[in-house]
UniProtKB/TrEMBL annotation:
<dbReference type="GO" id="GO:0009236">
    <property type="term" value="P:cobalamin biosynthetic process"/>
</dbReference>
<keyword id="KW-0170">Cobalt</keyword>
<keyword id="KW-1003">Cell membrane</keyword>
<keyword id="KW-0169">Cobalamin biosynthesis</keyword>
<keyword id="KW-0813">Transport</keyword>
<feature type="transmembrane region" description="Helical">
    <location>
        <begin position="195"/>
        <end position="221"/>
    </location>
</feature>
<feature type="transmembrane region" description="Helical">
    <location>
        <begin position="28"/>
        <end position="47"/>
    </location>
</feature>
<dbReference type="GO" id="GO:0015087">
    <property type="term" value="F:cobalt ion transmembrane transporter activity"/>
</dbReference>
<feature type="transmembrane region" description="Helical">
    <location>
        <begin position="59"/>
        <end position="76"/>
    </location>
</feature>
<keyword id="KW-0472">Membrane</keyword>
<keyword id="KW-0171">Cobalt transport</keyword>
<comment type="function">
    <text>Part of the energy-coupling factor (ECF) transporter complex CbiMNOQ involved in cobalt import.</text>
</comment>
<keyword id="KW-0406">Ion transport</keyword>
<keyword id="KW-0812">Transmembrane</keyword>
<keyword id="KW-1133">Transmembrane helix</keyword>
<feature type="transmembrane region" description="Helical">
    <location>
        <begin position="157"/>
        <end position="183"/>
    </location>
</feature>
<comment type="pathway">
    <text>Cofactor biosynthesis; adenosylcobalamin biosynthesis.</text>
</comment>
Amino acid sequence: MAAVSFYFIVCLPKPAYAMHIMEGYLPPGWAIFWWVVALPFFVLGLRSLSRITQATPELKLLLALAGAFTFVLSALKMPSVTGSSSHPTGTGLGAVLFGPLAMSVLGSLVLLFQALLLAHGGLTTLGANAFSMAIAGPFVAFGIYRLVMQTGRQRLAIFLASAVADLATYLVTSVQLALAFPAATGGFMASLIKFTGIFAITQVPLAISEGFLTVLVWNWLYNYGRQELEMLQLIKND
């Protein structure tokens, strides 16, 4: 029994297939490339957070809540196929509340703490992980929210923003891995199909679950944090 357990724990897992790309897995060129791509968003995000906190310091607690929500959800690693892992991202809520630039900072800080404290992700791959989860996901969430809000159905907009942001994150991660490791036969596309297939089985239901959970949190904010939501002009003052 111990031998079987050792085999499944040590021999089967392939950490590079986890939602956060593991430390040292990306070739140096690609690791540097994603750092360079992610840094401008982080700088703009700092400016966005500065404007928010200076204009409405009362929103600092809500900012902390958005960051904590992302940290907790993205730390919940769940087994996937071939020894990989999947997890929710939790970035949709913050993107709806404060916009995608603010989440580029909150999400990056979450990834940094997870790399240092939980060995989830890494420092050399922080740029790549930040781009997929803290930048691409929130921008998709914000766009989906604005698009669906044209129908006037806010809770549906929040559900779809959160769920699609989750899926967008795993898709961008798959693209990053496929670019870095094209298949010997079939190149980039074959590798992309391989990586997306690894996530798809668990990530789709996870994304749906995250959407529902985000709506539940929104309902709680709607009932107990109306003043903050009114400041953000997300609901109207009754």
